[in-house]
Amino acid sequence: MNPAFDTYIQSLAGQDVTIIGAGVSNSPLIRMLCSAGARVIVRDRNPALPRKEWDDLGVGLRLGENYLDRVGGDIVFRTPGMRPDHPALDSARAGGSRVTSEMEEFFALCPCPIFGVTGSDGKTTTTSLIADMLANGGRTVHLGGNIGTPLLTRAGEMSPLDVCAVELSSFQLMDMTRSPHVAVMTNLSPNHLDWHRDMDEYTAAKRRLLDFQSAEDLAVLNGDNPATAALRGRGRTKYFGGHTVCDGVIDGLVPISDIRLPGWYNVENVMAAMTAVRGTVPDEAILETARTFAGVEHRNQWVATVDDVHYYNNSIGSSPARTVATLHAHVGRVLLIAGGRDKNVPFDEMARLLPDHVKVLLLIGEAASQIEAAARSVPSCPPIFRCEGLAEAVAHAHKLAAPGDTVLLSPACTAFDQYSNFEERGGHFVELVGTLRRSEG
After folding, report:
1. Would the pTM of this model clear 0.85, i.e. be above it?
2. 25-37 core/surface letters (b: 16 or more CB in 10 A; e: else)
């Protein structure tokens, strides 16, 4: 179905290929390379990586502290969390290796139009909305990228009549040399400054979503966000935002009251998605999605109502800006559970919202002291409780909450001090709330 992919697979036979990182997203890639006849070496920091499957496939393993010693081979696949300028990769390039990534290879081999989405907030929801709108319009859609599903191993199944909806992080974009046919940037605000050297580098990484577009391509940008409103694509550029709303209707098509997702930031996500796909699918497909799309797990996800208290899981809220947006989405003052590992992004803006939006602040994790300091610098800050972990925070919130209250997990930090990722943190929250429901019954 995809001759270019078939040729690519044939070219891998006998090649020495290094994969950095043996995580879930790389497992299909490793198996694909082995089946193509490549000689594969997997390098991973984890010394206790389960070996049997990889041993059975003949994969060479370099594990533990020195896993990046003498990286080389014909092709080296960089994991997104590894900086492109890492000394191990520079050394590999100097030795003649071609350093690439799963996403770079996919963009080169994808036979169909790509709708690519990035931004500081709203990437996953907007990508999922685009996929649903395209699917409701009768298109065959492949959804993946940073959203969790690798796409390169599926490129052979794709046809030119299909479409791809791809979420892209700044980590993935930083060394990309191709852009999507439709490039959507939801917004830009300080984020991942524990990984990027500064805001300029972070912005430049995001900007690469547009840098390699052609004159026929489309850029969809947030006209209400100063950082994205200042950008233009290399082809057509469309801006979404409040200027497209008249009498509560977006662009003459979608009544805001019909949108099932709560909060203005979700209205913006719908705006971004509809601007990206309008003209590609019938308007009825856009309307159907806006009216039925109920959201994505861990993104301001309603979990349960226990003793007339509403529990919401916004574990994806790993930056202060995400938590700010989520607080605006809730009516009244919430009991907020926050904390984790910070990204070197200040909590000042979030702190200023606390008196009007937060009834009780429950803090966990490494960044609890920084958040508390920011909160106490604000007049009329809410009561603050320091908790050992999420279990204690949920239990304490349950004791403090009154009927009609909302308990919101929106940490404003990454999960990496206590969890493998935000999904694991959110899953633990859901499990803890489930325990409350069972005790209620």
Report:
1. no
2. bbbbbbbbbbebe
